[in-house]
Amino acid sequence: MFERRLTTAAKTRTKRTDDKLEPFPHRFNLARLFEEHLNVQNFAEATSVATIIQKIASRSAVADYVHWALQKRKRPQKPDVEIISDLIGEFKSTLESRDTAKLIKLSEWLPGRQEFIAQFLAQYTSYRVDISGFRYFGSERKGYAKVSLTNLTNTSGYPVQPGPWRQFEVVIQKDVHGQWRVVW
Q1: Which pTM value belongs to this model?
Q2: Where residue 19 falls among pLDDT bands split at 50, 70, 90?
């Protein structure tokens, strides 16, 4: 019943083209759109669609269901410091495991960093990643940590004493899409 009501509401919307009225071309089902957003955990868009549903069908069982489903699916937000701490741990394990695909997903690269990591992984067969000096600034919603690359072994199997490039600082912050990233 709810789908029929929303579909009817969408069909009645029209737009003017060439001085004649024709049905709005985007006949969509708001309930289906709401479910799609929830399935990909796009809570901002799901909330937006839920607001539209509340306006169209307020005080209905469907509006109550949409509100309930949104609250049920929304995960409680972890504190920023915990998210940043988890991301630093994930960054460390990803770098140690040499998983470049995952490293690309976690990172936002500074110029020259991607070439550095490609050369580094090609030259050294084993190494250890140490994280120290973790700082969190709540007012900026950013975290900082120092990364050190130690116990380097080159492709010939010999230990190598690293240069000053072995230490660098990473910044953990949200990107323009609202996703947490390691900037380095």
Answers
A1: 0.61
A2: very low
pLDDT single digits (tens) 136-176: 999 999 999 999 999 999 999 999 999 999 999 999 999 88
Q: How far is it, in rounded angstroms, from Cα 149 to Cα 165?
A: 9
Number of neighbours of residue 181 by Cβ within 10 angstroms: 20
- CA–CA separation, 32 vs 10, rounded Å? 13
Q: Cα 183–181–137 angle (5° rounding)?
A: 80
Domains, the chain, ordered by start: 2-73 (no CATH), 80-183 (3.10.450.50)
Type of residue at 134: F
Quote the CA–CA distance of 139 and 152 in Å, as a whole number.
Answer: 37
